[in-house]
Amino acid sequence: MAMIRMRDVVKEYPGRGRGAEPIRAVDGVSLDIEAGSIYGVIGYSGAGKSTLVRLINALEPTTSGSIEIDGDEIVGLPESKLREVRTEIGMIFQQFNLFNSRTVAGNVAFPLSIAKTERAERDARVHELLDFVGLGDRARAYPDQLSGGQKQRVGIARALSTSPKILLADESTSALDPQTTSDVLDLLARVNEELGITIVVITHEMEVIKRIATHVAVMERGRVVEHGPVYDVFSDPQHAATRRFVSTVIPAVPEGRELEALRERHTGALITVTVTDEGRAQHEVLGRLVRAGVDAQLVHGGMHELTGRAFGHLTFALHGEPDAERAAIESVREIAEVVELPATVGAATAAPTADAEGGAA
To answer: How far apart are CA 224 and CA 33, in angstroms?
Structure first.
């Protein structure tokens, strides 16, 4: 069942200047986000992903289209009804958005105070949540006494205080160092697994998607250009934007400077083999190369685990007689996808890199 269902969603802002065309930040997006999933939305700056998340929690009015939350249409609802919808949706932010004048416990309790929850129930809920996020001993501390990772844990506890069905994480790890990011992602995975909350992760970092997401949508210029289960999208990206993102975390077929560097060291055949859990394992690929009478050296790529399934692009340098090399390649081609790399390299080109997210998308 879809917890969030979007159909032909459009968001336009007035154009800059008299008579200017409106700016379309979200352009005809249709997505189903299943209950209990961790759904990643990824895109470069200006792709529209942050605008999309503001439409989901009704902080922005939708220009046209339909958005259903747990089966209920929210487009066109009056503000009094939207306030009820928002109690079902928790939100965590890149810059934490904590009240510096309130203690950790006071920050977590704030949404419950707004909801007029009784004091005893509120205190019990705060205690429960701080224990859950690993900050039970920091209830009386203030935000300026916490590390970035601890502040984000407070933000997660606060977002969970009203027992939401949905948690929206908008660039929630972008301000954190790698180890702290890993800890926060582990906590989000626990929230999903133990509490059953549907999580939507907005990010420009494919590593975040790889670590915890079950599904992903790639946005470019306000449109969703590709979406599906993480394994399917990572293992066989169809759109150029998706391929750029995937290449930042999973080395693909070497080209440009990477291929040039490999060719400087290896004059024989170079092949890239795509290994999936539907195909044969890495050791069987190696076995076929060895049985064909060639020396095979792994020179690029590696194996990865995506949602519990194996995937990787493995580039081998082959050394042997030409006939043996050809026989080895054809043998491997029987069980896996094989790309033969060119013997000569043209002008080197810089590999694409992911831009950092900045400003409103």
So the answer is: 13
Distance CA 24, CA 218 (A): 17
Which homologous superfamily is 2-247 in? P-loop containing nucleotide triphosphate hydrolases (3.40.50.300)
CA–CA–CA angle 89, 307, 67 (5° rounding): 30
User: By the 8 A CB rule, do 237 and 226 touch?
Assistant: yes
More confident residue, 285 or 40: 40
Query: DSSP H helical segments within the chain, as ranges?
Result: 49-56, 79-86, 104-114, 119-132, 148-160, 178-195, 206-212, 230-235, 240-247, 256-265, 282-291, 322-333
pLDDT tens-place string over residues 88-116 = 999 998 888 899 999 999 999 999 998 88
CATH 3.30.70.260 in the chain is located at: 256-340
With respect to CATH, is domain 256-340 assigned 3.30.413.10? no
The pLDDT score that the predictor gives to residue 312 is 85
- Model pLDDT for residues 199-251, shown as the tens digit of each residue: 999 999 888 999 999 999 999 999 999 999 999 998 888 999 998 888 888 87
Residue limits of CATH 3.40.50.300 in the chain: 2-247
CA distance 122 to 118: 6
3-state helix, strand, coil in the chain (%, to 5): 35, 30, 35
| 319 Cβ contact partners less than 8 Å away, ≥ 6 residues apart | 266, 268, 294, 295, 296, 297
Return all residues near 122 (Cβ < 8 A) that are at least 6 apart. 109, 112, 113
48 pLDDT more than 60: yes
pTM: 0.83
